[in-house]
Amino acid sequence: MKPKVTMIAWNQNDNYVVTAVNNHLLKVWNSCTGQLLHDLVGHADEVFVLETHPFDSRIMLSAGHDGNIFIWDVTKGTKTKHYFNMIEGQGHGAVFDCKFSPDGEHFACTDSHGHLLIFGFGCSRSYERIPDQMFFHTDYRPLIRDSNNYVLDEQTQQAPHLMPPPFLVDVDGNPHPTKYQRLVPGRENCADEHLIPQLGYVATSDGEVVEQVIGQQTVDQDEQGLEPSILDGMIRQLQLQQDQRTGADQESASSGPQNGEGTPRRG
User: Fold this and answer.
1) Domains of the chain and any CATH numbers
2) 3-class SS string, the chain
């Protein structure tokens, strides 16, 4: 096999260069002389993640498609810590990216199964208040383009940035309880009844009918004949405000100087 370099990184003070080779070895080089100092052995598949510690020049992190995450001392060429990303019932998960926190005491990794792995000192109590699976209900909704080539949400025909804050759901699209919905920016102070999404059935592009979070509806609204969905009502209100602003801008432009009288020129 012809050796190929898959990733390269300098350590924090640039004295060392670490290269990942497709024979699963990491090599530590003197950046001034080019001398090979250490071969770091441990990975069993290609490595595409090399991350430098933010202030400790001795520490380098590596992660690869074999699911292994290593913390190395590049000055000694030794292994400091090791973690294997084993997923129960699915084998190992390839690690695609890793980043250190600014203080250097934590690092986070993402794997091929969509997991966010957080390592560091202390306890995990602060992370236990959020569910294991978090998606927005709009994450996989299709988009379309209008005649002006602007992007619109296919279901509501609205620009995505004008839509209300989405709901948090699990991987199967089931909404999380209201206490988790308050974690979404824009929903912190909503009443409980506004945090219960409405489930409905929609047809996918393949013709399959699936259950999906559509909007929100209450019994009182049904009895009073109000908007069938608070989400839709908010979207219409935002669109109306935008149309009013656009009309006002056009009116002010049309009522500008006439008969060739422009704005005074600067002397």
Assistant:
1) 5-127 (2.130.10.10), 135-213 (no CATH)
2) CCCCEEEEEECCCCCEEEEEECCCCEEEEECCCCCEEEEECCCCCCEEEEEECCCCCCEEEEEECCCEEEEEECCCCEEEEEEECEECCCEECCEEEEEECCCCCEEEEEECCCCEEEEECCCCHHHCCCCCCCEECCCCCCEEECCCCCEEECCCCCCHHHCCCCCEECCCCCECCHHHHCCCCCCCCCCHHHHCCEEEEEECCCCCEEEEEEECCCHHHHHHCCCCCHHHHHHHHHHHHHHHHHHHHHHHHHCCCCCCCCCCCCC
Least confident of 105-109, 195-199, 226-230: 226-230
Cα gap 235→159, rounded to integer Å: 9
Average pLDDT (80-99) is 89
Threshold 0.70, pTM exceeds = no
Whether the pLDDT of residue 256 is over 80: the answer is no
With tokens 């090791």, the residue in question is 82
